[in-house]
Each structure stands twice: as structure tokens, then as C-alpha cells.
Design the sequence.
């Protein structure tokens, strides 16, 4: 017996877990070729020791063909988890046991697995009480799902983005479109499925902005879709619509034209709206029109003195003789697929500590809204040094070259290795458990076969998210016009919300700078309570009379490899939650 015991194989070592426990880390990524064998030895599950790290906020386990189920203990052991990424594994056919409850989880990525169904007890979590009460982004793309759980909306009532692309769904559960079921859902992607019909109840998704049902088996589009008050982007390409005119429109017309056609009673499951609409819907449309007029700046003198207002003027692509565009390569799909851009003109960074205040605000957004860059990453550039059009792509670490801020040109793999050595040396010198600065984000690249990057028309890499910008487009005190980018692996809506916050914060800083030029109080480190206003010398087209100047925000289009529009920022629905002292002129 003793000999048999001595011959028993030793348990697989997990040095990553020991390090995370010792350093009290909040982020952990498990990937790489050695992971397969260790997970297989653990019975196709994650090691139980992983669930004894209660401080974890971000956990990613990706690219492991041996991982068939997370294993028991996840919900109990990781109560503070904000982001859970389990993509490109072999999870399925269900989840046993179910994932939730995870009360703090905001991002859940289960894409690229072998999930076939998520029934109660083998799904995402309980419905009563909600198992995922704070979940905002759910990615189930690239699985084998034939149906969605009927209680999905009750399990995750605050869901904002839902990606179901590349499954085998033939319908949505009726409960998904129940009035008030998902009041915050803004993006629904279910391309490349087998959907045969779309319920008219989709009109109950009051926050829906983007709907992608391309490459399905739809024959009709309900006219009620036009009742979605915020819907700005639809994609029905690759279906078999019986309405020939509508079929042509979905391939060549903008969303606005498609919705107007449905609203006017065009075929495709619709009806004559003039006859069918009651006074309640007419009144609702009248209120929406009135709200848009108020948001566009009409009556701006009411309530708040115009001299104290911040004006944000939107310059549309059609009004811009040389709009900046970003082309997105399919290479980023599995790395960091979402990007939003904008141009802001009229910033004054020369006076006092304005530049420091701007950079500090960016750091705070990275810490808070961006969840330490795990949810998204911001990059800001001097527009004068940006050569468009831009390409957002991904390259192998040994092929990606960049001149990082304050450094010489280096390959990405060498830069990461250099930063890792610096981080360890810094930790030893300061005798701290944690590292600081951009060293904190190196783990986000662990195991990645390619790194995302933004390349200008000269072929120079100007951004390497989530690590650094390029020296070429570095922000200086003399910078007045900026190109902003926000990238994310979570969702497009996350990018837009963070861009909204960044633009408004820039405006507040600008106003604070202008108002404090003469009294010498610019050294104050914060300008949180101020509203924004730009300088006169910038030559920005937004400059007006003293005391009520405006920043100009130029739309930037993001296009796919075929030149089709993926997103434009700011759209009519962006910057819609501005403070009372802010007027957005569209």
C-alpha cells in the first residue's frame, strides 16, 4: 500500500494561483499550452483552489479544449468577480453546476464553446432572486444553442448588450420581449442563426439602439420594430424577406429609411400605421419629438443662464470636408473587437495645470468606468499628428512595432518583457505587493497570440491597447484638437458610454481652465464641479462670444473590411445624458 501511495501521481501545480494569492491580485488570466494538461488532470474543471481567491475582480480562462465545466464553488468563492471570460474552451452541453449567483458580475463572455442549452440548474444562474443582478454584457456567440433560457431576463435584468451570433436559434423566448423585462438592453446581435420570425413585442425594448439579425431565415420584419424609440442601427442582410422592396432596402439603405418604410405600413409583417395607431402612441411620438427639440438646443435659455452653459457642437460627417475614418480588420475579432472614435476641437491645455488635469481625469476613468482597463481602454492623440484613414487590426507580438511614449522603437513582445522586468524591479525597490502605472495591465495580454493596435496611413502604430500610445501622436500643452479612441473586449455600448464620459470631462476641464485663467487658481488638482468652455485662440469653428464658447465634436465613422458602416460617434443617441448645464447642438 505504501508503495502504491508513493507511485500515485502528484497533483498538478498551479503557480499562477499561488502568485495571485500571495500578491492579493484582483485580476487573473489562465491560458497557454500547459493549461490543457492541468485542466484535464483536474477532470475537465477549474482547480478548486481557484475559488479560494475572493479578491478576484477579473478572471479569464481561454483557449483550453479540456475545460468542459467551470466546476463547483465558483459562485461561493468569487463573490467580488466583475468580469468572467471563459471563451474558446469546450464548455457544454450545459453548465453544471450553474454559474450564479454572482452578485457583482458585469461582463460574462462564454463565446466559442460547445453550449447547446442553458436549462435551470445548468445555466447562468437562478431567476428568483436574480442570479446576475448587475450583469451588463453577455456574449454567447459561437456556441450550439438551439434555444435561450426563458428566464434570461429575470436572471440578468440589467443586461445592456447580448451577443448570440453564430448559434442555432430559431426563435427568441417570448419572455425576452415582455414589457419592462430588459429595460436597459441597447445591443442585440443574433446574426448567423436560424431565426424564422421576429415578434412584434420587440418594440418593448425601449433602450434598443442596435439590432443585428443578418444571415437568418426571416421572411418578415414586424412594423412594430419602428416603435423602438432609440433604434439607430439594424442589419437584416442575408435573410429571405418576402417584401421585395424591403429586401432591397436592407442591402442599400440607412436604418432611418428602413424604419420609415416600416412605419408607413410597408409590407413585411406590418400594417397601416395611420389606421392602427391609437391616440396613446401618437402622444408618445409627440413627446419624443418634443424631447429631441429640447436636446437640440431650442429654448436653451430656459432654466440655466446661457452664459453658464457648456455647448457641445456636433459636426456631422456630411458637413465635414475631410472626416476621419477607422477601418476595422477581422483580426481583432477574438482579441479586442470594439472601437469607437471621435475628434474634439477647441481644448486649451496650455494654461496652468490643464494638461495634467486632463491626463489625471483619463487615469481616473481607467480606474473607475474602465475597471482598470479590463472593460475598456482610452487613448488620446494630437490630431495634427494623426494621418488618416486609420486601421484597427491585430498583429503577432513579434511583428508589431511601436515607438511607445518616452521610449525608442521596439517590438511589442520585447516591450512587454521589458515592462514585466521593470514591474518586478519596481516591486522589489518599493517593497510593495502590487505594481503601479501601466505595469498593472500587462496581465491582460497573457496568452494572446496577437495584440491589437491602431495604425495610421503611414503604417505607424499610434496605439497599442491596453498598454500604451505611440510617441508620434503624444498630447502636448500646445495640443488643441484631439483624436479620441476607446477600445473594449466587452461591448460597443461600453465604448460609447466611456467616450461620453470622456468628452463631458474634457468640456468641464476646459471651462474650469477658462474661468480660472485670471485668478491664478489653476493649480487646483480637481475640476469635477465645473462645466466646460473652450479658448478663443484655437481657431475652432465652435468659438463664439466670451463666456459661452463651445467644443466641437466631429463624428468619426468606423467601417468594416468591406467599407460598411459599423458605428459612428457621436450618433443622435450619444451624449444624451448630459448634465443640465450642458447643451448638445446636433
Sequence:
Amino acid at each position: 500500500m505504501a508503495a502504491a501511495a508513493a507511485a500515485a501521481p502528484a497533483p498538478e501545480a498551479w503557480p499562477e494561483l499561488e502568485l495571485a494569492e500571495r500578491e492579493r491580485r484582483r485580476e487573473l488570466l489562465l491560458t497557454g499550452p500547459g493549461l490543457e494538461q492541468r485542466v484535464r488532470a483536474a477532470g475537465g474543471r477549474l482547480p478548486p483552489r481557484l475559488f479560494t481567491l475572493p479578491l478576484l475582480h477579473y478572471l479569464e480562462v481561454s483557449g483550453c479544449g479540456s475545460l468542459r465545466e467551470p466546476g463547483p464553488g465558483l459562485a461561493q468563492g468569487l463573490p467580488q468577480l466583475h468580469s468572467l471570460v471563459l471563451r474558446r474552451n469546450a464548455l457544454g452541453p450545459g453548465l453544471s453546476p450553474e454559474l450564479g449567483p454572482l452578485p457583482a458580475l458585469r461582463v460574462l463572455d462564454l463565446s466559442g464553446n460547445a453550449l447547446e442549452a442553458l436549462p435551470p440548474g445548468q445555466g447562468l444562474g437562478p431567476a428568483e432572486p436574480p442570479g446576475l443582478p448587475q450583469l451588463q454584457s453577455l456574449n454567447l456567440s459561437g456556441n450550439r444553442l438551439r434555444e435561450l433560457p426563458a428566464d434570461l431576463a429575470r436572471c440578468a435584468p440589467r443586461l445592456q448588450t447580448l451577443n448570440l451570433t453564430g448559434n442555432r436559434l430559431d426563435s427568441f423566448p417570448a419572455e425576452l420581449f415582455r414589457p419592462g423585462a430588459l429595460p436597459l438592453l441597447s445591443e442585440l446581435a443574433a446574426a448567423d442563426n436560424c431565426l424564422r420570425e421576429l415578434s412584434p413585442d420587440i418594440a418593448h425594448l425601449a433602450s434598443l439602439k442596435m439590432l443585428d439579425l443578418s444571415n437568418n431565415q426571416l421572411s418578415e420584419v414586424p412594423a412594430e420594430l419602428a416603435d423602438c424609440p432609440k433604434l439607430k442601427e439594424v442589419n437584416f442582410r442575408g435573410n429571405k424577406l418576402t417584401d421585395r422592396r424591403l429586401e432591397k432596402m436592407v442591402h442599400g439603405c440607412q436604418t432611418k429609411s428602413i424604419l420609415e418604410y416600416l412605419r408607413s405600413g410597408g409590407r413585411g409583417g406590418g400594417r397601416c400605421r395611420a389606421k392602427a395607431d391609437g391616440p396613446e402612441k401618437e402622444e408618445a411620438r409627440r413627446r419624443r419629438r418634443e424631447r429631441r427639440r429640447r436636446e437640440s438646443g431650442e429654448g436653451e435659455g430656459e432654466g440655466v443662464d446661457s452664459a453658464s452653459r457648456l455647448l457641445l457642437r456636433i459636426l456631422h460627417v456630411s458637413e465635414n470636408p475631410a472626416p476621419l475614418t477607422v477601418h476595422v480588420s477581422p483580426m481583432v475579432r477574438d482579441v479586442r473587437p470594439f472601437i469607437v472614435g471621435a475628434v474634439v476641437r477647441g481644448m486649451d491645455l496650455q494654461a496652468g495645470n490643464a494638461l495634467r488635469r486632463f491626463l489625471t481625469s483619463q487615469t481616473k476613468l481607467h480606474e473607475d468606468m474602465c475597471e482598470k482597463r479590463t472593460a475598456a481602454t482610452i487613448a488620446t492623440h494630437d490630431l495634427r499628428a494623426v494621418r488618416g484613414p486609420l486601421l484597427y487590426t491585430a498583429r503577432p507580438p513579434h511583428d508589431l512595432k511601436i515607438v511607445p511614449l518616452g521610449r525608442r522603437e521596439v517590438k511589442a513582445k520585447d516591450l512587454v518583457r521589458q515592462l514585466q522586468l521593470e514591474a518586478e524591479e519596481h516591486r522589489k525597490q518599493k517593497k510593495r505587493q502590487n505594481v503601479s502605472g501601466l505595469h498593472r495591465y500587462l496581465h491582460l495580454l497573457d496568452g494572446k497570440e496577437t495584440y491589437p493596435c491602431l495604425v495610421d496611413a503611414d503604417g505607424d502604430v499610434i496605439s497599442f491597447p491596453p498598454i500604451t500610445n505611440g510617441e508620434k501622436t503624444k498630447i502636448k500643452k500646445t495640443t488643441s484638437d484631439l483624436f479620441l479612441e476607446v477600445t473594449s473586449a466587452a461591448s460597443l455600448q461600453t465604448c460609447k458610454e466611456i467616450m461620453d464620459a470622456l468628452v463631458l470631462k474634457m468640456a468641464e476641464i476646459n471651462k474650469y481652465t477658462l474661468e480660472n485663467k485670471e485668478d491664478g487658481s489653476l493649480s487646483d488638482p480637481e475640476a469635477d464641479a465645473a462645466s466646460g468652455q473652450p479658448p478663443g485662440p484655437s481657431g475652432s469653428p465652435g468659438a463664439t462670444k466670451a463666456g459661452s464658447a463651445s467644443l466641437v465634436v466631429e463624428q468619426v465613422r468606423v467601417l468594416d473590411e468591406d467599407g460598411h458602416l459599423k458605428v459612428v460617434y457621436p450618433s443622435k443617441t450619444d451624449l444624451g445624458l448630459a448634465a443640465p448645464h450642458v447643451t448638445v447642438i446636433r
In short: The two ends are 81 Å apart (CA to CA).
